[in-house]
Amino acid sequence: MIAPWPAARPARPLTQHGDADEAMAPGTTVDHLTETYRAHYKSLLGLAALLLDDTASCEDVVQEAFIRVHSARKRVRDPEKTLAYLRQTVVNLSRSALRRRILGLKLLSKPMPDMASAEEGAYEQLERDQLIQAMRGLQRRQREVLVLRYFADMTEAQVAEVLGLSLGSVKAYGSRGIAALRTAMETTS
Questions:
Q1: Side-chain half-sphere exposure of 21, counting CA atoms within 13 A
Q2: Is the pTM of this model over 0.70?
Q3: What distances in angstroms separate CA 18 from CA 23, 26, 52, 94, one per listed residue?
Q4: d(CA 50, CA 41)
Q5: Which residue in 51, 56, 82 sits closest to 69, CA to CA?
Q6: In the chain, which end has fewer C-beta atoms inside a 10 angstrom radius, N or C?
Q7: Residue 149 in contact with residue 174, Cβ under 8 Å?
Q8: In a 3-state reduction of DSSP, which class is residue 116?
Q9: Are 46 and 99 a contacting pair, CB within 8 Å?
Q10: Domain ranges in the chain?
Q11: How far is CA 131 from the centre of its chain?
């Protein structure tokens, strides 16, 4: 005699938090996932070790894989695929770890800019002080033209517009100001 088809069980309502573990296939329960993790931890660690080079990173990757598969366990409906999900997650996380390392090595391999020695810094400060002192000795218009032209990086036309001078006057003040600066800097050296 053939056994009768079992009567359909009524669907269980979800818990208050919406946890569907009980209503889902056996492969998605926390218990099954934990058992799979414990049973295959060493093989998952070995897989990560083949892709990465240090034990700490391998352990981190395997633990992170478990956490991610645990978070997505509702999508794992077949108990046979739990281990496959864990393995694929270990591979993906290992790849990500390697990409981060490569990026870090690229950033570290860029040479650091040369630093000026203390003597060079002192010499530059001395020159800067001499230049400021020489600038103070210029006529007001010469100083204004040179500051706007060379320190504010304006064109001669922009300087003429700002100061309300003709373009020829700006050129003349600039030329005379540079000549006066050159003379003043040579006498202090």
A1: 10
A2: no
A3: 11, 17, 38, 32
A4: 14
A5: 82
A6: N
A7: yes
A8: coil
A9: no
A10: 26-107, 134-188
A11: 41
Which amino acid, residue 133?
Answer: Q
pLDDT value for 92: 92
The kind and range of the H/E element at 158 are helix 156-163
Q: Which two tokens stand for residue 19?
A: 């946890």
**Tokens of residue 141, six digits:** 């218009």
**Equal CATH topology for 26-107 and 134-188:** no
What integer pLDDT is reported at residue 113 of this predicted model? 66
Distance separating alpha carbons of residues 52 and 45, to the nearest angstrom:
10
In this structure, the number of other CB atoms found within 10 A of the CB of residue 185 comes to 14
Residue 22 pLDDT: 46
CATH top-level class of 134-188: mainly alpha
Tell the residue number behind the tokens 């931890």, with chain if given: 41
In the chain (189 residues long), the average pLDDT of successive 10-residue segments reads 40 44 55 87 89 86 91 79 88 89 75 69 81 88 90 90 93 94 83
d(CA 41, CA 69): 14
CATH architecture of 26-107: Orthogonal Bundle (1.10)
